[in-house]
Amino acid sequence: MDNSRQQLKKQVKKHIPKDWLCELRIAYRILMEAVNDIKRTGIINLVIITTMAAILTLFGVLFRFTLSLSTFANELGNVLEISVYLKSNASSSIVKDRIKEIKHVQSVRLIPKEESWDGLKRELGLQDIANPLPDTLRVKVDKPQNITEVFNQIKPMSGVEDMGYAKELAKKIQFLTHIVNTTMFFVVIISAALTITIINNTIQLVIQSRKDEIEIMRLMGVSNWYIKTPLVMQGAFYGFVSSIIAVLPLNWVQSLLLNVHKFFLIPSPAYAQNIVIISLLLIGTAFGASGSFLSIKKHLQV
Fold first, then answer.
1. What gap in Å lies between CA 237 and CA 227, rounded to an integer?
2. Interval 271-286: pLDDT, tens
């Protein structure tokens, strides 16, 4: 019965001509309802926005630090190379071509044994003696976490005498990357949980204060979306304003990190500040609207 009634409503709506002026008035009325709800909340607005801004500030600062740490890890990873020492009878060009075909290999550079030996003689001041060094291939991998996989694929190749790479440095880079990613994951989860909880409690108070008004609207046949939308907009407003406040301390963090990058001669990640600001605005608004929506589903049966 309910399904047939809903289908009938949909069919009727399709044949009703749209009155854009009427819809504009409804949209204006919904906006004014959201503004009135914010006014009714009073001083609590300041507490909500301040608390949410503190949470989002923590998220924004950690996110910005994460971008810089990732850049440092990538730069260190770019220094990592696998040194492949070839047998005396091996064809360096054939081995080089085979290594290039391996997944995650970014580049392969040949260092002839004569070049290595000349450099070592100059460095140590050695006399003219027979060259004991082999031809060497320097293999660069796309990401530090893939270096072990590439190493294991090159090792059994014919023509390869020995291999080596900075194993401890690779492990430290992988550990740093894992810590950064894990930290950001938990920060996002905690920020979402706290923000949604705060908005949830606030919207619950608004619903309780408007209980009679909402009941009257129901009896008058007002649509559910007309009742819900102002409350969702209120939550989104809290999140958006809190995000704008949270952006302010990022200027100080940005200048601090730029000095650190200059000191270590490592370029700052491109558009890092813009990425963090946009992320804060989107996440803050989304968390605020989500918290409001969940509260409506929980406390408002419409």
1. 17
2. 888 888 998 899 888 8
Closest CA to 243 of 281, 199, 204: 281
Distance CA 112, CA 135 (A): 5
Task: For residue 86, list its beta bridge partners.
Answer: 160
Same domain, 135 and 63: no
Judged by DSSP in three states, 157 sits in coil
Query: Do 145 and 196 have their domain in common?
Result: no
Beta bridge partners of 140: 107
Range of the structural domain that residue 86 is part of: 81-165
Q: Among 165, 191, 225, where does a domain finish?
A: 165
Structure tokens at 84: 């492949």
Q: Are residues 70 and 185 in the same domain?
A: yes
- Same domain membership, residue 263 and residue 222: yes
Q: What is the pLDDT of residues 87-128, one digit of tens each?
A: 888 888 888 888 888 888 888 888 887 777 676 667 666 666
Round to whole Å and give the CA distance between 248 and 254: 11
Tokens at residue 206, please? 């608004």
